[in-house]
Amino acid sequence: MRKIWTILTLQLKEFFKSPGVLVLMFVMPVLFSGIFGGMTMNSEQNKPVVNVVLNDTEISGQILNLLTKEHHYEWKKATRQQAEKNVAAQDVAAAVVIPDDIGERILASEPLLDIIVQRKSETYLALSAHLEGTAGLVLRSYQATSKLEADAFPKVLETIANNKGVTVEKQTIQKETKTNVEASLLFVGFAIMFMMFGLSGAASAILEERMGGTWGRLMVSPASKLQIILGYLLAYFFMGWIQFAVLMTTMNLMFATTWGKLTYLIPFVSLVILSVVGFGLMIAGLVKTKQQASAISAVLIVSTCMLGGVYWPIDVVPDIMQKIALGVPQSWAMSGFKEIISGSLHSATLVKDTLALVGFSALFFFIGLRGIKFE
Amino acid sequence: MNMLTVQDLRKSFGNMEAVKGVNFSVEKGESYGLLGPNGAGKSTTINMITGLFPPTSGEIQIKDINVIKNPKQAQKWIGVVPQEIALYQSMSARENLKFWGRMYDLSGSELEKSVDQVLEIIGLTERAKDKVETFSGGMKRRVNIGAAILHKPELLIMDEPTVGIDPQSRNHILETVKRLNGEGMTIIYTSHYMEEVEYLCERIGIVDHGQLIASGTLSELRETIGDHSKIILSIDKDSSNLDGLAQSLTSLFSEKDIQIQDHQVMVFHKEPQLILTDFIQSVAKSGTKITSVDIVEPNLESVFLHLTGRKLRD
């Protein structure tokens, strides 16, 4: 254990001595997150406008009241014709139609609300989640009052809309803070990308040590191969955690972001860091020099981050790209983070994301450990 | 008592056999030199002895430990000075020594004491806190040795420890090795600098093309060439008639004792002073202009030349 600790502390010291590494692992992600996070926050102040098309029935009015509980949008009534024109001209982010036949739709279990958009933007994604939540609420209210008097249904909706304690879409929008899921996911995305650069660079230091002779010297010391490799890998794991913790704290201070339940977040971050360490080890095991490792890492990291929804939500890309994204670990990591940060904690999705990351980590470690020359 | 026994050691890399059945043993407290040109198989042999990689076949035993079966157990008893400067350059000499000491299970006051002693031995106490990257090549080599002797190994294996350093540092290193050996440490020293091996080692093994072609004390090795000295006449190439010269020399000496190169004529003889006059007269008669005369006593260079047909640094 002492030998593992000695190697671990040496690697950490060496790692944090390099100004280049500090810039790559802390300054760059904070800078990127600050710039793009700031843009996301500012965009929140300029609320997107959403047209609402509705008739003058009491139920429609109460549904509108429910919709306007979401303060991240500016809700404006419009006729269907005006709304379609506004959407086409991109004067509004979307238009929501509360159909005249909403009663029949409830009975037929059909979608209650229609949404008109120009393209599936991030605004659309957040809005659709809010609409689904509202529709669910309407449906449940109808089911609860179906055997009561005829005016019980609108009254229930009115009560819900007037209740200040109700948060219509708490699952995806945390109204109590000024933050949103999008911004937190953006920070996580940058953290993953720069962590991949930092840790794959660190892991390829094994190649440099091989060339320099310290690796060979370690191998002829009484320390076992397992102790040596554990020392290195644990050092990289801690580096990843230090980076993530610094970034989380900084973003919290700058933008008052929230990160969901820590009991879920901490193990999931650990798993993501483990797969990033595995990725770095795999690269170090596949190439011969640090220069080769840097070149290959750069290409792989940028391309897989693009595919995996690190730079933009994966839901906005075509279906075929979404299917390809399943082949990169970042998509599973982002999906899991979305579940945890948004607070939805959908267990089936989280389990799937976790298992996928465990699989990727195992594969990366297998390839990496086979490729590393212990001589 | 044997500290190291190597039996029929072989190592192949693909189709290339780098070590071809090497046998030797080193006694406790002995200093043994492995001499050979670059690529002869010295480092491969050393790397197998230290347990860095396993041999294709053969046996290695350190004390009574089988190195192939229990490399980690054997490595506790040995110190290895690799050919490279295997140190962390951005760390100080003291930090490096402490790190390597911990790898050999030293800790606490024992480690501190050992580091201080080693810094004293390698003459770097004053520079202990300086980063290794600021050191000269010779100082780095000294720390490289220091890292191998922290745990007071019984067997110190040094693979070309003086490559590319200044004479002052080389002398310091040689004196250090001599002192360690004098204190009872068994030394295996590989080099292609024969004067170092001559100075340090009681017994010498000559390695070439992956084989140990001779082994013994310096005087035993000298006997393999019959203890012949070498008379070297440097000649003016333009004035020489090499064919005529060779003909006149073969009438005086055995053909195997004569060597003629571009601007040198050499004759090997047990008592050079007896034939020196005849040799010079014979060369002069052939019309060749002599520019200098030199007599070289038998040494490792001539032994190596005799055994392999080439110079050590070819």
From TrEMBL, chain A:
Pfam families: ABC2_membrane_3 (PF12698). The lineage of its organism: Bacteria, Bacillati, Bacillota, Bacilli, Bacillales. The keyword Ribonucleoprotein does not apply. GO terms for cellular component: plasma membrane. The chain crosses the membrane at residues 21-41, 185-207, 228-250, 262-287, 294-314, 354-372. The keyword Iron-sulfur does not apply. Belongs to the ABC-2 integral membrane protein family. InterPro entries: ABC-2_transporter_component, ABC2_TM, ABC2_TM_bact-type. This is ABC transporter permease. It comes from Neobacillus novalis. PANTHER family: LINEARMYCIN RESISTANCE PERMEASE PROTEIN LNRN, MEMBRANE COMPONENT OF ABC TRANSPORTER YHHJ-RELATED. Residues 150-375 form the ABC transmembrane type-2 domain. It is found in: Cell membrane. One of its GO terms (molecular function) is ABC-type transporter activity. PROSITE patterns: ABC_TM2. Keywords: Cell membrane, Membrane, Transmembrane, Transmembrane helix, Transport.
